[in-house]
Amino acid sequence: MSAVGRLHSVQTMGTLDGPGVRFVAFLQGCPLRCCYCHNPDTWEAEAGESVTPEQLLERALRYRAYFGPEGGVTLSGGEPLMQAEFAREFFDLCRQNGLHTALDTSGCRLDRAAGELLAVTDLVLLDIKMTSEQQYRARTGGSLAESMGFLRRCEEQKIPVWIRHVVVPGLNDTGEDAQRLAGLLRGFRCIDRVEFLPFRKLCLEKYHRMEIPFPLENVPECTENRCRALQKQAGL
Predict the structure, then answer these.
(1) What is the sign of the dihedral through the CA atoms of 141, 102, 18 and 131?
(2) Mean pLDDT of the chain
(3) CA 80/CA 18 separation, integer angstroms
(4) What CA–CA distance (Å, rounded) separates 27 from 61?
(5) How many CB atoms lie within 10 A of CB 184?
(6) By the 8 A CB rule, do 18 and 102 touch?
(7) Phi first, then psi: what are they for 114, rounded to 5°?
(8) At 60, phi and psi to the nearest 5?
């Protein structure tokens, strides 16, 4: 019997969540409360639409003609590791149908189910949110150690990884922060790309509508130039 997932929404022609043109499915549920989260409406695990792996695959296949040689399917969220069994079944079906699979995750879970999901994952987009355990716990409610453990598992299983790191003015935008990230990533052969992403507040209206305080409402957005400068400093 197929696992049943909880789906928040889909993006049918995504170009930012993996290589090429992608079908991006945003799953419900996340154990973190990142201070810059853009999707607070995905936090609740029981919200959203009920869907089977077969039903989600059927939707994805409608857009296969647009994927080209590099595109495919990405699971995001929320945190897809919270629905690891459903995600594994879905990715297994994708692979059977020749679709490239990408997992957008914080790496917050590394149990048997997560390992089985990685076995059918072609690419991991791993968010390293902060560069110290203290910062990570204060700003996300999670653990940097868990993310690094997940990265080590990707290394062991030889799964290509793109690292993503959101740069927030006043929180993690110094040269020291960039150098610390470089130190965390040093020696990992599975890492194909590192992306420094500028903090944005496009989510602000969503927070207001949901009547949830946005912790960084008064923090300025980061610039692309600052991200490029930090990435250069880090040598990444």
Answers:
(1) positive
(2) 96
(3) 15
(4) 18
(5) 18
(6) yes
(7) -65, -40
(8) -60, -40
- Which structure tokens are listed for 190? 């599975």
Residue-wise burial string across 127-154, b where 16 or more C-beta atoms lie within 10 A, e elsewhere: bbbbbeeebbeebbebbbebbbebbebb
In sequence order, the β-bridge partners of residue 5 are 51
Looking at residue 80, its amino acid is P
pTM over 0.85? The answer is yes
Q: How far apart are CA 183 and CA 164, in angstroms?
A: 15
Q: What is the pLDDT of residue 2?
A: 78
What tokens does 71 get? 């595109």
- Quickly state the pLDDT bin for 1 (edges 50, 70, 90): low
Q: Could you tell me which of 103, 188, 189, 109 has the C-alpha nearest to residue 143?
A: 109
Interstrand relation of 72-76 and 22-27 (parallel, antiparallel or unpaired): parallel
- Residue 174: which residues within 8 A CB-CB, separation 6 or more? none
Beta bridge partners of 126: 105, 163
